[in-house]
Amino acid sequence: MDPDHVDISFEAKHGALLQETPFALPFHLRVRILRYLISLDRQDYIDAPASWHNAQIRRSHVVEDGYDKLNNLGHNLKRTVQISFVNQEGLQEAGIDGGGLFKEFVNTISLQAFNPSYGLFCTTGQNLLFPNPQSFNVNPWAGSVDDLSLFEFFGRIVGKAIYDGILIELRLAPFFLRKMLGKEMFFDDLESLDPELHKNLLHLKNYDGDFEMLSLNFEVVEDHFGQARTTELVEGGRDIAVTADNVLQYKNLMLDYWLNKRIARQSLAFMKGISDLIRPKWIRMFSPDELQMLISGSVSPVDLEDLRANCVYGGGYNAEHESIKIFWDVLSTFDSKQREDLLMFVTSCSRPPLLGFKELHPSFCIQKTSHSAEEANSRLPTASTCMNLLKLPAYSDPKACRERLLYAISAGAGFELS
């Protein structure tokens, strides 16, 4: 059987098969099955515009207003949500949300809520995110909203992004992705959290020296805001020495503590939020790496031919316009990182859609600016990320086009949110 012609509806009805042997089908077909399942589920939430949810969001308080306006929707967040932004001066911005403003909202709230400086998430040594074990103590909303409610809401935001096919610039730690999939933790998963701890425990497992010299007990000592905090791995653990006879038990308890118990509350709340929109069995068709791609896009290099084939034009541009030809010629000289930076500049996500640029909504669009021919070569391009729109001056000089593009995408110059 040709795997590219598998009956998606048949496979969607046989979830047990996909749960047990998901890798029998290629990744892109499982993505199509997920989209099919979501489209079926969406039928229960298709409604008249009069019943759409409208939310006014202050740009200066995106997380706070998002929580206040959307958190109580629960699974009804599956319905259409229209966003209107209020600028820094307190004025409502012009424009009707056809989906682009909500996409911008999802990307903006994700960047802010998952930023380690916000306090609810922290990073591994590789700058990959996982819930902050001390979230209760650093909750920015302490006294008004508990940290678990925030984790649940942020889970809904990620669930809504997957449900609507919105890619967000979010890199999660592999062990946390495994938790999201309900998978058992293994010893090597610890390496993605703390390579040094993983190395030390591996050494301890194979240690054949005198354990008394190590002075280890069944307890963990952590820094807690400058204070040493001790947690027993078992009752009375501080009085139980690690020996050759119990070292494997110690290793397993350490694994359970660092990967499970420390963030159990936060992880459960986060997954509860996701499950309001995405059924757990749907995403269990995927591996941790594949789940990361569902959230933030393909790890494949930006395919210029695919992007070009699915690009649309506006403002007087077309595929044969001289400035457009210059643009694509210049883009062909960009390295992988520069192409990702351009994609980030225009769409707010550096990775391509999973199934190619035909899946990008709205389509990648290049619009001609109103600058005169004389001044175009000195102008910077700008972008409206909510519409995946690149506003490109009519460059006549390839060198100027390259220099202006590189400056804009590397410095964020000329960036427009709407």
UniProtKB/TrEMBL annotation:
The keyword Transferase applies. Its EC number is 2.3.2.26. Residues 77-418 form the HECT domain. CDD domains: HECTc. The lineage of its organism: Eukaryota, Cryptophyceae, Pyrenomonadales, Geminigeraceae, Guillardia. It comes from Guillardia theta (strain CCMP2712) (Cryptophyte). The keyword Phosphoprotein does not apply. GO terms for molecular function: ubiquitin protein ligase activity. Keywords: Transferase, Ubl conjugation pathway. This is HECT-type E3 ubiquitin transferase. The active site is at residue 386. Signal peptide: none annotated. One of its GO terms (biological process) is protein polyubiquitination. It catalyses: S-ubiquitinyl-[E2 ubiquitin-conjugating enzyme]-L-cysteine + [acceptor protein]-L-lysine = [E2 ubiquitin-conjugating enzyme]-L-cysteine + N(6)-ubiquitinyl-[acceptor protein]-L-lysine.
